[in-house]
Amino acid sequence: MAFTTILPILFLITLCSFRLPCSAFTSQHYFDALDKSILFFEGQRSGKLPSNQRLTWRGDSGLSDGSSYHVNLVGGYYDAGDNVKFGLPMAFTTTLLAWSVIEFGGSMQNQLENARAAIRWSTDYLLKAATATPDTLYVQVGDPNMDHHCWERPEDMDTPRNVYKISSQNPGSDVAAETAAALAASSLVFKDSDPTYSTQLLQTAMKVFDLADRYRGSYSDSLNSVVCPFYCSYSGYHDELLWGASWIHRASGNNSYMAYIQSNGHILGADDDDYSFSWDDKRAGTKVLLSKGFLEKNAEEFQLYKAHADNYICSLMSGTSTFQAQYTPGGLLFKGSESNLQYVTSTAFLLVTYSKYLSSNGNGGVASCGASTITPQKLTALAKKQVDYILGDNPSKISYLVGFGGRYPKHIHHRGSSLPSIHEQPQHIACNKGFQYLYSGSPNPNVLVGAIVGGPDSRDNFSDDRNNYQQSEPATYINAPFVGVAAYFSAETPTN
């Protein structure tokens, strides 16, 4: 090693030893993470793959989805390591991908088009699901109970591709309002690049929201065992109605949605504080989203949401009187033993987004935590710690982003990744024949680059084990908010 190479490394070690702010990751590292986290979505695609598909071990799948019901439901995403298309997490994934581009697309450089393509793969499907039949939204393709009894490639699926829908007779306000949010947020992404498509997305969002609001009820009650316990709407549907209205208001500027928020907010959870943000519970995200109006325009009607956004932020910050978050010994936010990183990436996204909103206030906005205040810089510092932990700055020294760094999970709980590619082994692998690959100790033959897995436990322990789905399964809604956070730090972090 040349002496000129050693000097910067020694200098970095010296800085770190004196506990000065120090990061092992540069803007190039974060940009690489951004690139990979978007690429992951190509591995989750259902339908006819395009000629520019980059994860070439995948093939076409689900090409007859919906046909037996006389609707076209080809496309969209498989949610995680299985072969079901669940509407609620897919819509939330789409909303968060769109929000990532809306806030941080300017930092995505040559990845912006790939991010738009990832969004469009979903919105094309959601448009089909929302417009195939009047007053109906198709919300799921595939029987999850049957699917989970098989271990097979999506290209080989022979389990029932049942189609499930919500309607005026069988309401699903939660999934419909989240779909409306996804379409509305995405309309902003395509407003300049494809205005006709953007208008179609927004108009469909309004129709789907009307279905959600007019026929109120939870899709868990209407569809029961086909969505529970997989994506049961534990938080109910009030949070999605407020979230959906907020996104349509932001996308359209239509005052009727502002009036809806003002007249229904208190009923739909505006006064509630919740301390997690996920595919199920949108309350914290809505507070941050609506706080933008107060912070940037000084619109008094949004002041309530700024106060509740502060409460959320304060709950994450040690040393404040309302601190209540749990962190692992290594510093990772810990919310639950199953797929914990979904809460980490969504929280990190809200931290950097709220930091951006606070900083947009010319008076130097801060979060108020009783007698103390939290600066935007503290928010981004906490977010950065979470991102760096995911990328490998953790006690196990492993990256939880597949394909990033020298050490990452090799045995992820994912059917397509763990079975031989259809291009390598074109012979059909039946439902039960695939389990030999699930139980194999060999690394997955196909690297699902960019997948963020469920992550470690509350003591920072991680098992790279295909059977431990709680820790080793990736999901679209883990990756979606990370896209925005990675873009933010790729622009904000100086090169060491």
Verbal overview:
The protein has 496 residues and is mainly alpha-helical. The chain has a single domain, classed as Glycosyltransferase. It has 18 helices and five strands. The protein has helices at 3-17, 27-43, 87-104, 112-131, 144-147, 173-189, 195-214, 219-223, 238-252, 255-264, 283-297, 303-316, 341-359, 376-391, 415-418, 435-438, 469-472, 476-492; strands spanning 85-86, 136-141, 163-167, 367-369, 372-374. The strands form two sheets. It has a three-stranded antiparallel sheet with strand order 1-2-3. It has a two-stranded antiparallel ribbon with strand order 4-5. A hairpin with a 2-residue loop joins strand 4 (367-369) and strand 5. The radius of gyration is 22 Å and the shape is globular. The relative contact order is 0.14.
List keywords for this structure.
single chain; 496 residues; mainly alpha; Glycosyltransferase; three-stranded antiparallel beta sheet; two-stranded antiparallel sheet; 18 helices; globular; disordered N terminus; cellulose degradation; 6-hairpin_glycosidase_sf; hydrolase; Glyco_hydro_9_His_AS
What is this structure, in a nutshell?
The chain is mainly α and 496 residues long.
Structural topology:
Layout: H1 3-17, H2 27-43, E1 85-86, H3 87-104, H4 112-131, E2 136-141, H5 144-147, E3 163-167, H6 173-189, H7 195-214, H8 219-223, H9 238-252, H10 255-264, H11 283-297, H12 303-316, H13 341-359, E4 367-369, E5 372-374, H14 376-391, H15 415-418, H16 435-438, H17 469-472, H18 476-492
Antiparallel strand pairs: 1-2, 2-3, 4-5
Helix pairs in contact: 2-18, 3-4, 3-6, 3-18, 4-6, 6-7, 6-9, 7-9, 9-10, 9-11, 11-12, 11-13, 13-14, 13-18
